[in-house]
């Protein structure tokens, strides 16, 4: 007869903490992938409008027509004329910037990127705020407050220390939640508003299911090995 493996509360807390950390990391990875994909599409549409030399004056008719036709096929993706122009603004603002800045804004939620565009920040300022959002899980309102308080300038005069190791799990959770609640991302994933929470849950579960199964399989394998070891010890 197999003996039940017992662990103390401290050991269980460690197992739980590791499992939570793994799941949060997986959710953050999925969130970054969603944002990167959405922003890549927006970037390419913005480039298309830029390459066609469409401006808000004489090109407004073309963009309005494009918006109508796109929304017929993708009604929940935020493809209004205004947002199409924002995609062009995104491309115009960053296409000549260095890779580090491009990589930072590529994984930001779309609302965060629009805020950075509206504030007409320098490249260094945009990079600073983008990295702060990613490292600390800032919501859009927190980003706005930081810009209003000119946190970038204040930080330049401070000793550069941080406690990212302590706050990273919370930051990861905040970032993932911000991404998954974005109406733009929900539309991109084909999630309709009335069943947003249910469909979102299903799709997130589908995204990380393989990871969780792998984690469980490893755990079961370890338990099986431990049981065999205990049985062998009993026989001896």
TrEMBL record:
InterPro entries: PD-DEXK-like_domain (IPR053148), YhcG_N (IPR041527). Residues 20-153 form the YhcG N-terminal domain. Pfam families: DUF1016_N (PF17761). This is YhcG N-terminal domain-containing protein. It comes from Phocaeicola sartorii.
């Amino acid at each position: 007869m197999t003996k039940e493996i017992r662990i103390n509360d401290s050991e269980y807390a460690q197992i739980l903490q590791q499992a939570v950390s793994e799941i949060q990391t997986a959710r953050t990875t999925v969130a970054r992938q969603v944002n990167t994909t959405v922003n890549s599409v927006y970037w390419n549409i913005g480039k298309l409008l830029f390459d066609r030399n469409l401006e808000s004056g004489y090109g407004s008719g073309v963009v309005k027509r494009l918006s109508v036709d796109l929304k017929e096929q993708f009604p929940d993706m935020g493809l209004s004329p205004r947002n199409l122009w924002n995609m062009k603004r995104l491309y115009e603002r960053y296409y000549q910037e260095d890779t580090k800045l491009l990589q930072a804004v590529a994984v930001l939620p779309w609302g965060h990127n629009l805020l950075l565009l509206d504030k007409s920040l320098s490249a260094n300022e945009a990079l600073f705020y983008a990295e702060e959002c990613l490292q600390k899980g800032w919501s859009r309102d927190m980003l706005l407050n930081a810009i209003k308080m000119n946190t970038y300038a204040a930080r330049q005069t401070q000793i550069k220390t941080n406690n990212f190791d302590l706050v990273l799990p919370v930051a990861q959770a905040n970032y993932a939640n911000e991404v998954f609640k974005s109406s733009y991302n929900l539309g991109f994933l084909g999630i309709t508003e009335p069943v947003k929470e249910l469909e979102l849950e299903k799709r997130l579960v589908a995204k990380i299911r393989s990871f969780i199964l792998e984690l469980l399989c490893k755990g079961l394998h370890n338990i099986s090995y431990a049981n065999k070891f205990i049985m062998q010890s009993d026989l001896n």
